[in-house]
Amino acid sequence: MNSGFYNESPACHCEESSDNEGKNKQHYRKPIESKRGRPRGSKVSGTKKEVIDLRSLLTRCAQAMADNNTATASEFLKQIRQYSSPYGNATERLAHCFANALEAHVAGTGSALYTALTSRRIPAAESLKAYQTYVAACPFKRMSNIFANKSIGRLTREATRIHINDFGILYGFQWPCLIQGISLRLGGSPLLRITGIDFPLPGFRPADGVEQTGRHLMNYCKRFNVPFECNAIAKKWDTIREKNSGGM
């Protein structure tokens, strides 16, 4: 249970691990390496790997496109394709994605590429696995969620109703911690209303994704006895008006 939800500052469980890490560093001493020359007759094996600045190539390619210099842009794309890969390191994978976009821009097929990408439904389990990997590798998303949830809890400590408008709710990964936290309030939890807003999905059920997220959050609220209402909106964000969110 999130017993420290209404505390002034979020609990940090990293201090102990940091202390242990510091102790381990104190006990560790780097061994002294003896500097000796290469034995006679030996040769340096292997070849030097060519270092390519993919960021510079991508920038120059984009600049050539902006100048309508298709020939130069195509030449840069050939170089980018040679040194990028969907299975390489992070830079090579990112360059591969940008190269696809730049190539579509040159060929005038950007709209078709976007339609093909958006029509592919990514399974929720796959998205959750990617999100967990991201949160484990980068603490910023986790910390922003912690401080946002605690700020909402602090500012609504006496409120009987809480209404949240979540633009880009996707699967609503942020809100289970808030639901669990407000369920601990003395005297009972307030009514929680979440207006989940996301882009419409292609096909005949554009709001299917955001409505499914609402059902998952509803089931989670039932586990913790939190009164819950959900308003699912699948529209372009610039078309959303205050009346769409349904004021309380």
Q: What does it look like?
A:
Residues 52-112 are annotated as: Leucine repeat I (LRI). Keywords: Transcription, Transcription regulation. Residues 13-36 have a biased composition (Basic and acidic residues). It holds the Pfam family GRAS. This protein is mainly α. The protein is 51% helix and 9% strand. It contains ten helices and three strands. The protein has helices at residues 15-27, 54-66, 70-83, 90-107, 110-119, 124-137, 140-155, 175-182, 208-223, 242-245; strands at 161-167, 191-198, 228-234. Strands 1-2-3 form a three-stranded parallel β-sheet, covered by helices on one side. Strand 1, helix 8 (175-182) and strand 2 (191-198) form a beta-alpha-beta unit. Helix 2 packs parallel to helix 4 (90-107). The longest helix has 18 residues, at 90-107. The chain is elongated, with a radius of gyration of 26 Å. The two termini are 29 Å apart. Mean pLDDT is 80; it is low at 11-28.
